[in-house]
Amino acid sequence: MPMSQKKTILTGDRPTGPLHLGHYVGSLINRIPFQDTYKQFVMIADMQALTDNYDNPQKVRDNVLEVALDYLSIGIDPTKSTIFIQSMIPQIAELTVIYLNLVTVNRLKRNPTVKTEIGQKKFGEHIPAGFLIYPVHQAADITIVKGDVVPVGEDQLPILEQTNEIVRSFNRIYKTDILHEVEWLASKTPRLPGIDGKNKMSKSLGNAIFLSDSADIVAKKVMQMYTDPDHVHVDSPGKIEGNTVFMYLDVFDSEKNEVAEMKAHYQRGGLGDVKVKRRLIEVLNAFLDPIRTRRAEWASDKAQVMQILFEGSAQTCEVASQTMEQVRQALHLDYK
Amino acid sequence: MPMSQKKTILTGDRPTGPLHLGHYVGSLINRIPFQDTYKQFVMIADMQALTDNYDNPQKVRDNVLEVALDYLSIGIDPTKSTIFIQSMIPQIAELTVIYLNLVTVNRLKRNPTVKTEIGQKKFGEHIPAGFLIYPVHQAADITIVKGDVVPVGEDQLPILEQTNEIVRSFNRIYKTDILHEVEWLASKTPRLPGIDGKNKMSKSLGNAIFLSDSADIVAKKVMQMYTDPDHVHVDSPGKIEGNTVFMYLDVFDSEKNEVAEMKAHYQRGGLGDVKVKRRLIEVLNAFLDPIRTRRAEWASDKAQVMQILFEGSAQTCEVASQTMEQVRQALHLDYK
Question: Domain check: are A243 and A182 in the same one?
Answer without folding.
Answer: no
